[in-house]
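Quick start: what a row looks like.
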Amino acid sequence: MTSPAVSDADLANALRALAMDAVEAAKSGHPGMPMGMAEIGVALWHRHLRHNPANPGWPNRDRFVLSNGHGSMLLYALLHLTGYDLPMEELKRFRQLGSKTPGHPEHGHTPGVETTTGPLGQGVANAVGMALAEKLLAARFNRPGFELIDHHIYVFLGDGCLMEGLSHEACSLAGTLGLGKLIAVYDDNGISIDSEKGHIAHWYTDDVPKRFAGYGWQVIAGVDGHDIEAVDKALKKAKREKTRPTLICAKTVIAKGAPKKANTGAAHGAPLGAEEIAATRAAIGWPHPPFHVPHDVYQGWDARAAGKRAERRWLKLLDQYTAQHAADAAELRRRLSGALPADFELRVGQLIAATHARAETLATRKASQNVLEMLLPELPELLGGSADLTGSNLTMGKASSIITREAGGNYLFYGVREFAMCAIMNGVALHGGFIPYGGTFLVFSDYARNALRMAALMRQRVIYVFTHDSIGLGEDGPTHQPVEHAATLRLIPHMDVWRPCDTVEAAVAWTCALERRDGPSALLFSRQNVAFALRDEEALAQVRRGGYVLSDAPWAKAAIIATGSEVPLALEAQKRLAEADIAVRVVSMPSTTVFDRQDAAYREAVLPRGLPRVAVEAGVTDFWRKYVGIDGKVVGLDRFGESAPAGDLFKHFGFTAENVEKAVRSVLS
C-alpha cells in the first residue's frame, strides 16, 4: 500500500519525470506514451500486477507485455521503481551502447522484460500466446484445491498495434479461444507520427470497441486513462471475467502534463526539450532535478516485499501439490525448465536407426509426420498447429488432440493466420512449459517473416514446419512455389534452417530442432516423394552436423553439394560421371547454418580447399556462391516457376542428372 506521505499523483509523476529525463539525455526516444499512460501504469503495477522483482522468472507471476514498445521508458521506469535489478545509472544510459535500456524492450537483456517488442502488433500477439500457454498448463496440471497455474497476462497497446493487421489475426483467435486471463489496455490517445499535429482521425477511424466485441472480447469502453480509480475499477472487472479476453479502452492525452506538447505529434517520437521539460515539472508539481526520485516515492513503489510473499505462498502450494501429486509436480518442473525427458537421446537414437533401416522413399513432409508420431506421445510439451493446412503440412499425429474454447489439447487450428500463428508461438515459447511448432507452405513464410525474425532475435525454441518447399509443389504454380525463401531464411541470424533429403535427415532435423534451446528452427519439407539415400554408419552419425559426405569416391576431382529433393540428382550425376572415370564426392547439406558452426577442420574435411564444386538446389543461386566460389557452378533457379506437374517442371528448369553432370564437367575443364 502507498504510505500516507505519497500520493498516487507522486507515483505517476515519477514515471513521467524519468521518461522525459531519459529521452532528453539520450536526445532520442518517445516520451509521449509513457507520460500519457503513467496513471494506467500506477493502477496496474501498484495495485494488481503479481510479480517478484527479486526473481523475475518465477513461474506463476503475472506477465506484462508492452506491445507499444516505443514507449519503453514507461517499462524501464516501472522496473526500476518497483525494485528490479535496473539501477538509475541504466536509465541515464537510455538507448546507449551496452546499456540495459535499449530503444525498445528486449527479452533476455533487461530483467523483467517478458518479450521483445517494437514492431507494432507483435507484443499483443505474443500476449495471446502467453495466455494460451497459461490456459493449457492450468488445464493439464491444476487439481481441486491446487490452482497452481493461475496468472494473468496484461498487455498495453496503442493505435499503431491496432492498425497492424497482425492484431486482427491474433485478437480474433483469442476471442474464439476464450482466453479469459488476457487483459489488454488500449492507450487511446489519438496521436500518431504522420502530419503536423499527428491526429490519427485523418487515417484511422475504426470503432475499436465494436471491433473487439465482434471478436468475442469483453470490452470496457470510455475509461478515463488519467483516473487511477477508474482504471483500477476496469481492471477488477476484467479479472472477474473468466471466459473472454478483455479490452479496456482508456482515453489518454499523449505527453500529459507538458504545457505545449501534450496532445501533439511532436511528443510522440522526440525529446520534449529542456524548456518544455522545465515547464512540465512546474505544471505537474515535480520540483526534483533530473533522475532524482525521493525516498518516500521509492518506498511507495517498492514491490519486493509483496513479490517475495506472493512467490513464497506459491512455493508452499507447490510443496503441498508435490506431496499429493508427485509425478505431475516432477513433470511440471521439467517442462517449465525446458529440459527434454531423460531418455530423449536414447529414444531418438532408436528412431533414427529404425528410420535408416526401413529405407523408405517418401515425401519429406510425410517423413516429418512419421517422426511426429513418435515424438508426440513422448513429448507432451509439444504444442502443434497449422495455418489452415494441416492435411498438407502433415503436422498432426494420432496423439494430437484439438484445442477448443472448452477443452485443452496439444494441437491448434490457427486458421488462415500465418503471421499470428508464428507470433503466438513466440509467446507460447516465452511463457514456458511448451515447445511450439506450426506449419504452413514455405512460400507463406513471407507473411510471417517479422515473427520469425523476432523468434531469432529472442533466441526462442520455436519450430516452423514449412512444406511444399520448391517448384516440386507443381500445378499450383509460381504464386505458391518458393524460389528465394530457403536462401532468405538462412540469412536470418540465429535461425537454423533444415532442408532434409530423405526420412533420415528429416528425423535428424526434428531431433536437432528440439535439442536446440538457443534459437528457432525452420524445417523445409517436400510435397513430392524423394528417394531414400543410402549412407554408411559414419555418414549417419554426421548428419546432425548440417553437412556431410553422403557418398565419396577415391581421389575425387570435384564435389557436388545438394539439399533436399535435389540430392538424388547429385547421386545420379555421380554415378554417370563414375562411368566416365570421373570421381566425384557428393555432400548433402541439409543445414548450411549448422554446417557453418562446425569447426574449421571438419568443414575442410567435407569440402577441401581447391576441390572444384557444384551446388544443386531448386532455388536462387547467389546464396551458394559462398560454398562454390566464383569459379564453381550452381544448378539453381533465378526466376519464378510455372504451373505444371512437378516432374515436368524439374526437367523444364534443368534439374536433371544430365545437367548436373554437365556442370561438373564445366568446372573440371
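That is the whole record. The chain has a mean pLDDT of 97. DSSP finds 28 helices and 18 strands in the chain.
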